[in-house]
Amino acid sequence: MHKHYKNWLIQAPLGLILVGFGACLIAESAILKATGAETWQWVVAGTVSLSVFNAGLCFFGNAILERMRYERNMEEHKEGS
To answer: What is the 3-state secondary structure (H, E, C) of 1-39?
Structure first.
């Protein structure tokens, strides 16, 4: 299997999972703040949730690049045949 395709196949679902999980954690952080939890609790929870969310965006963004590289290589391979 082509390395770019394999990278895309792993990173795209991982990115989507992390984005969804990070969004859920962001909501949980907001609930902590709204219910009057101590400041340190919702700040730490919010920081972790945004980190997870942003990591998901990074994985998904890189997956898009890997797919583009894969498709470009496939086109070059077809033209070279």
So the answer is: CCHHHHHHHHHHHHHHHHHHHHHHHHHHHHHHHHCCCCH
